[in-house]
Q: What sequence folds into this?
């Protein structure tokens, strides 16, 4: 298991990273699209987690999956759903605050 983690760690260390935005992102288009992409990725990952939990739950009812696997999948799905709801609530709150601003 450690051997499979090592290449990932060395790959991350070998890539140069920068906190300064690129020239295209300075105009604001890159930041907005990356935020939208991040939200889309998070939503897709949450949906995949929920689907996996549902499939494992059905497999558990049929006796094809271990109870521990089902519980782990359902708990993971619950955590993902709570995170998605919290993010949604923050976005709605931010939108309401912006809509109340005077021009």
A:
């Amino acid at each position: 298991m450690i051997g499979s983690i090592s290449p990932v760690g060395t790959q991350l260390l070998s890539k140069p990273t920068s906190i300064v935005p690129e020239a295209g992102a300075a105009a604001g288009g890159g930041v907005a699209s990356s935020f939208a992409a991040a939200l889309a990725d998070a939503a897709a990952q949450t949906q995949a987690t929920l689907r996996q939990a549902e499939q494992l739950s059905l497999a558990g009812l049929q006796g094809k999956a271990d109870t521990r696997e089902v519980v782990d999948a359902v708990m993971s799905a619950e955590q993902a759903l709570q995170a998605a709801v919290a993010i949604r609530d923050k976005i709605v709150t931010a939108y309401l605050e912006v809509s109340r601003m005077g021009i």
Summary: Confidence is low (pLDDT under 50) at residues 1-6, 8-13.
